[in-house]
Amino acid sequence: MILTHEHKELHRTAKRFVDEQINPKLDDWEAAGTWPAHEVLKQMGDLGLLGINKPEEYGGLGLDYSYELMLALALGNCNGGSLPMAIGVQTDMATPALAKFGSDELRAEYLAPAIAGDMVVSIAVSEAGAGSDVASIKTTATKDGGDYVINGSKMWITNGTQSDWACTLVNTGEGKPHKNKSLVIVPLDAKGVERETKLDKLGMRASDTAMIFFDNVRVPQRNLVGQEGMGFMYQMLQFQEERLYGAASCIEGLESNIDETIEYTRQRNAFGKSILDNQMVHFRLAELKTEVESLKAMVFQATEQYIAGKDASMLASMCKLKAGRVSREVTDTCLQYWGGQGFMWENNIARAYRDSRLVSIGGGADEIMLGIICKMMGTLPGRPK
User: How does DSSP classify residue 107?
Assistant: First the structure.
C-alpha cells in the first residue's frame, strides 16, 4: 500500500492530538477508571477524525479505509490501549453498519452526530453467555405497534456508562440463529435502560465498560439498521473493520514498547555490562521488531483487499490473531527486560502488558479467528473447501 502525502498528514494530525490532548491526561483517566468521552470525541469530531471513511453527506470525509488506517496507527501512540479501543468503538465498531445500511433518516439522526462528536456511541453485541459465540445471544426485540420492545442484557460494553446510543444486536424472530437477528439503534436514555454497573477490569482502565440491562425498552421500528433478519451478516461485515482497526492500533504502540526497552536496557547495567549488550537480549528484540513489521505488512495487505471490495475476512482474522499474539509476546518480553521496574503499576510497559491481553479476547477470541481461517481454508472436519 502506497502512502500519499494526504495519508501522512492525516497520521500527523491524529498523532499530534494524541501527544497534546490524550497522553498528558491519560494517567488521571486511568486512576479515575473512565475518560471524558464527550469532550475528547467532540475535539476529534472538530478535526474530522471520526468520519474519515464515512459518507460526506453526514459529515464524513468520504475517504477509503486506507485513511482510516492512518487514524488507527496514530492512536497506537497513546500510552495505553484504553483510548484507541474506546475511540475505535465510535469509528469502526458501532457505526460501519449504520453508515452502509441505515436509512437516510436514521443516518441523519444518529450517524451524523457520532461523526461530529456530538454523540458517544457503543456496540452492544456480547452477553454474559454469548461473547465470541454471537449467534447465541438471548436479547429479544418484539414488535408492538410501531415499536420494538427490547428485553435482555449486554455485557462488556465499551463506553457503556457514557454512550448516547448503542448499535444493538437483538433477536427479532424465532428462526435459525444466523437469520433471526437484527441491528437496532437503541437510545440509552430510553425508559427501561439500566447501565449503572461499571465493570472493574484488569487492563484498559481509562475506558469505562458497562453491563446494560433492557427492561421493556421501547424503540421505534424505524431504528432498524437495514433489513430485519440481516443483523448477524451486518455484524460479521462490521467485524472486518473492527479487526483491521484493532490490529492496526497495536502496531506503533508495540514499536514504542520495543524502543523504550532498547533505551532502558542500554542504560541498565548488570555484571559489568549493559543488559542490551547480551546477545540474547538484542537478538530477541530484533525478532520482536521483525514480528511487528510482519503484522504491519499483513494489515496493509488486508486493507488493500478491503478497499478493493474483496472479502477481507480471512486476512482480517489473521491480522487480529497475529496482533493478539504479537502483543502478548512483545509486552511480556519487554517487561521481563525491565525487571522489577517493569512490574511497577505506573510503568508504560506494565500498562501495555495489562492492556494488550484483551487483544486476544475482545472482538473475537484467538480461537474464533482460527476457526474462521480454517473454515476459509477448507480444513474444518466435514467442510470441504
Answer: I
CA proximity to 301, closest of 244, 251, 235, 249: 244
Residue 371, pLDDT > 70, answer yes
Handedness of CA 370, 371, 376, 380 (dihedral sign): positive
Q: Position of cell 437483538?
A: 170
Residues 266 and 354 in one domain: yes
- Considering the candidates 242, 252, 255, 291, report the single residue annotated as catalytic: 242
CA distance 45 to 51: 8
| Count of CA atoms in the C-beta half-sphere (13 A) of 380 | 10
**Model confidence over 314-357: pLDDT tens digits?**
999 999 999 999 999 999 999 999 999 999 998 999 999 999 99
Burial readout 56-93 (b: 16 or more C-beta within 10 A, e: otherwise): eebbbbebebbbbbbbbbbbbbbbbbbbbbbbbbbbbb
Q: Are 245 and 364 in the same domain?
A: yes
Total domains in the chain come to: 3
Indicate the pTM of the whole model.
Answer: 0.95
pLDDT tens digit sequence for 80-122: 999 999 999 999 999 999 999 999 999 999 999 999 999 999 9
Rounded CA-CA distance 114/300 in Å is 27
Residues 219 and 114 in one domain: no
Residue ranges in the chain assigned as alpha helix (H)? 5-17, 23-32, 37-46, 65-75, 82-88, 96-101, 104-106, 112-116, 231-267, 279-307, 313-338, 348-356, 366-377
20 catalytic? Reply is no
Write phi, then psi, for 305 (nearest 5 degrees): -65, -45
Query: For residues 249 and 52, what is the distance between their CA atoms, to the nearest angstrom?
Result: 16
Cα gap 123→308, rounded to integer Å = 26
Owning domain of residue 152:
122-228
Question: Cα–Cα distance between 262 and 275 in angstroms, integer?
Answer: 9
